[in-house]
Design goal:
By secondary structure, the protein is of the alpha/beta class. It folds into two domains: about 15-20 and about 270-370, Aspartate Aminotransferase, domain 1 (Alpha-Beta Complex); about 25-265, 3-Layer(aba) Sandwich (Aspartate Aminotransferase, domain 2). The protein is built from 13 helices and 14 strands. The chain has helices at about 25-30, 40-55, 70-80, 95-105, 125-135, 160-165, 185, 215-220, 235-240, 250-270, 270-290, 315-330, 355-370, and strands spanning about 15, 65-70, 90-95, 110-115, 140-145, 145, 150, 170, 190-195, 205-210, 305, 330, 335, 345. The strands form four sheets. It has a seven-stranded mixed beta sheet with strand order 2-10-9-8-5-3-4, sandwiched between helices. The longest helix has 21 residues, at about 270-290. The radius of gyration is 21 Å and the shape is globular. Bound molecules: pyridoxal-5'-phosphate. Pyridoxal-5'-phosphate binds next to helix 3. Pyridoxal-5'-phosphate binds near residues 147, 175 and 204.
């Protein structure tokens, strides 16, 4: 008879593009006994999670909740609820996740117009405006923090431009929420989503999403039913809103986890948290540059949460990553798509963003490359 041993995975130091390390307080909370998903005590937990999500998204949007599923479920919900077949959608592609936005939008029948820039760059407001001038779009999709390249998309003026041309703005905040400023109301973003396992120090499994009143109206005016029943936000609204109508069983334990992850953000304070992410990223960059590694993204729009040093000439990408994992218990990732074999991707997100992790990684790399 086959025997199955106790699960015995290593305690890794997760410095890749996600999942990042789960805060011990979150892990502890995940052993809390379950209550029912319509238990009055759970309803209070749901309310608190929504309040805390509004806090990290920096928004007053009433429609703010965690979708059951990973970041990609948030991505899909952000598109399928607003797209009707034949709608014009404009997607800015500066890396892999922009490509995924195009792919999903096409599957829901959108006419997708994609604008590409090279992997590692971002768009200026003028470039977005020029595209909309050529032809308006019902939806404009951008990635705030492109995890495949390490580039930040500045958002200061883009919301106003998209609205001037009558569109809705969708923003992927998976690698930014909880790690760098995400100002949904100030930037006038209509639909934004994230994931629990990047900068929020939780396991993968939930996708926070927030929807503006403008977007909510568009959603309610649609003529055809949303092609995805599970991610139909108006049905989810009936569960998370006043009615509390059963839609699907909420992943109770994950909601507990998210509440604790968000409570940690609240206790630390947004400014202090962003400063911590920035500080540790700067220590990493300085250390890498000290070893003659160059960074792929210019410092002006380099993500503090995901760094992409170029792999030096003659260095075996895979061998180094294997050694980091096997000898130091450290996970980092390689580049992929257009950056495969060219960069490493080093994440410093949430609980992973600690000085001891940076110091250990730098020491290990020094030994392996030296
Ligand atoms: C990780 C990531 C996603 C996808 O999230 P999953 O949790 O893997 O489904 C989407 N967009 C960006 C920018 C990401 O980094």
């Amino acid at each position: 008879m086959t025997t199955y041993t106790d699960l015995n995975t290593s305690e890794r130091i997760l410095l890749g593009p996600g999942p990042s390390m789960v805060h011990p307080r979150v892990l502890r909370l995940m052993t809390t006994p379950l209550v029912g998903h319509l238990d009055p005590q759970f309803l209070t937990v749901m309310d608190e999670v929504q309040e805390l999500l509004r806090f990290v998204f920096q928004t007053k949007n009433e429609f703010t909740l965690p979708i059951s599923g990973t970041g990609t479920a948030g991505m899909e919900a952000a598109l399928c609820n607003f797209i009707q077949p034949g709608d014009e959608v404009l997607i800015g592609v500066i890396g892999y996740f922009g490509e995924r936005l195009c792919n999903i939008a096409e599957r829901y029948g959108a006419i997708v117009r994609r604008v590409d820039k090279s992997w590692g760059e971002n768009f200026s407001p003028e470039e977005i405006e020029a595209e909309l001038k050529k032809k308006p779009a019902k939806l404009v999709g951008l990635v705030h923090a492109e995890t495949s390249t390490g580039a930040l998309q500045p958002m200061d003026e883009i919301g106003a431009i998209v609205h001037r041309y009558g569109g809705l703005l969708v923003l992927d905040c998976v690698t930014s929420l909880g790690g760098l400023p995400v100002k949904i109301d100030e930037w006038d973003v209509d639909i934004a989503y994230s994931g629990s396992q990047k900068c929020l120090s939780c396991p993968p499994g939930l996708a926070p999403i927030t929807i503006s009143e403008r977007a909510r109206e568009v959603m309610h005016e649609r003529k055809t039913p949303v092609a995805n029943w599970y991610l139909d936000l108006s049905l989810l609204d009936n569960y998370w809103g006043e009615e509390r109508t059963y839609h699907h069983t909420a992943p109770i334990t994950m909601i507990y986890a998210l509440r604790e992850g968000l409570r940690l953000v609240y206790e630390e304070g947004l400014e202090a948290r962003f400063a911590r992410h920035q500080r540790h990223a700067e220590i990493l960059w300085e250390g890498l540059e000290g070893m003659d590694l160059t960074m792929h993204v210019p410092v002006e729009y380099r993500l503090p949460t995901l760094s992409t040093p170029r792999i030096p000439e003659g260095v075996d990408d895979l061998a180094i990553r294997k050694q980091l994992l096997n000898e130091y218990n450290i996970e980092i990732a390689g580049g992929f798509g257009k950056l495969a074999g060219k960069v490493w991707r080093i994440g410093l997100m949430g609980y992973s963003s600690r000085v001891e992790n940076v110091t250990l990684l730098l020491a290990a790399l020094e030994e392996l490359l030296g």
